[in-house]
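Quick one - first record:
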Amino acid sequence: MDWTSRFAAAYGRAPDVAWSAPGRANLIGEHTDYNDGFVLPFAITERTVVAAARRGDDTITVASTAYPGSASAGLGRVVPGMAAGWPAYPLGVAWAIAQVRPLPDSPGVDLLIDSEVPAGGGLSSSAALEMAVAGALASLWGLDLAVPELARAGQRAENDFVGAPTGVMDQYASLLGQPDAAVFLDCRTLETRTVPLRLGPAGLVLVLADTGERHAHAAGAYAARRASCEKAARQLGVPALRDVQTADLPRIEGMLDEETFRRVRHVVTENARVQATVVALEAGATKTVGRHLTASHRSMRDDYEITTPALDLAVEAALSAGALGARMTGGGFGGSTITLIDARRVPALRAAVEDAFAAARLAAPRISIVTPGPGARREG
């Protein structure tokens, strides 16, 4: 059953429009986005579709093929704090758009969400949902929303409606993804450029290992990392940690407590790794990227302390199988790893990871080749 028939089954009529948007994997650049730094994500081929139809009133109703029931409210009553769980994301996007753009006279809509992006796996199922909803609502409401407006609506939904203090990386990746390419985003200026990955000519693939551990970005640990960075920026007298360079680290070490300094060191060195990765990719030196990925993971493990034993095990097993590099991808505290490896070594990688997890008495991760794909689009 496709999204058209699913919508008809839920609402008794055909949808007027449908938009889809992909999840994303982050090649490198973790927890740098809310520090005004640099990130290098790419869209994945797994997508979320949102089918939508106009109503004759001001009510917005959201339903999902993955969850029973639905949520409904008049758009004038959609405010932060009025919804929890998955409905908060689409309702939050509608609220965010309504804060900055006038809506038509009867703006009511019915939405049906159908997603193949795994929730909580570090692949930003939330951004895929937000950008598909934003595209569908903009189409129904006759709004010409530029990429920054769409991305900002998703971020405001997460920050102000859901309560997750995330940056804007995921939304830009979901909107701007292209096949066999990553999106280099400057999170301060919001300037972007497409960076070719050239995986095929190099004989390489990217492999995801989903550990099955699930995280929640609204939980305290993520918020604590962001608060620590903001505190450090104030202590150092800079607008954001983006303004600290690697050469500054020896000088500032004595200005911060030990834990805060480690948080800063991760962000500063991660920004440098992102830039080095972009230089390597644009020079066609794809095989040299692996060492930056591995260094990123170790920084997240030791300085930012956002990995888990399962994520660490997946990375070490991948490296033992001959991977060029591997790291946790996503916000941390669970989710997936991403590995750069010769395509011929994928069976060895799979065996090494599965054996390591079996020896640790952990359930085997779901291992799959991840393919960079296109960004958000109208489907019908």
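second record:
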Amino acid sequence: MKAAVLGTGIMGAAMARSLAREGHQVTVWNRTPERATALEGDGITACGAIGDALLFADVAFTMLFDAASVLDVTGEVTGALGSDAVWAQSTTVGPEGMRRIAEAAGEVRDRLLDAPVLGTKQPAEAGKLTLLVSGAAPARAKAQPAFDAIGARTLDLGDDLGSASGLKLVANSWVASINAATAQAIGLAEALGLEPGLFLDALRGGAADSAYAQGKGVIMADRSWDDPAFALDSVVKDLGLMVEAARDSGFADDLLATLLALYERASERGHGAADMAAVRVAFDR
């Protein structure tokens, strides 16, 4: 297939490389052109304009920061998308953000897929993401070869645009919770004069163990979070969407609001661009 990736941050760049590795012809675009040109070679061509990136594309992925950034380019995407091409919208935008994008898509709506992904840098680089996909069945079928290139599994959520984005928030609420709880436990161990690694050793192999806690816990203990797999400010953005979605649905947001405050505190302490493991600093005195 010919695939375009609009947005070449941590996830978009990894998705582009996975698509190219599986033999697809890939074009990429980014607001900061240097981040796109850094990917050139091995089946990837950088483009300076969205229209050039979408020329002849069978499927176009948007992997930007938020709903506003997607809406900023929606007119260009819908204007340049080929008549048979599919738009896989993979930016985390929440159900309401996805509805706004679908409304702005106009005639392209039938070829728009709500397609966020589960996974961070390492599974994205390995083509082992989990895709959550909703939208029209013909569009889902057409995009499947591209989904197979970037993911180990595709979860089909039916026709409703917004269902996949909703499940993405649910999954990320779990990840944000585990990560913050790990930071709390590491911090409490240190406050009690214990080596933080003892917590991870005590957890290992038991019913409460978690690969996520083990991986992030080591980073927290070492404070080696400068190379982000999932940037802390991205978690802040996602938690804001979760709080909004909870309030819109009448769901209690107590824990989500507390998590948001913790991640915001870590960001205010200068770690917004670091890995989400840097939420550990929210527990510093």
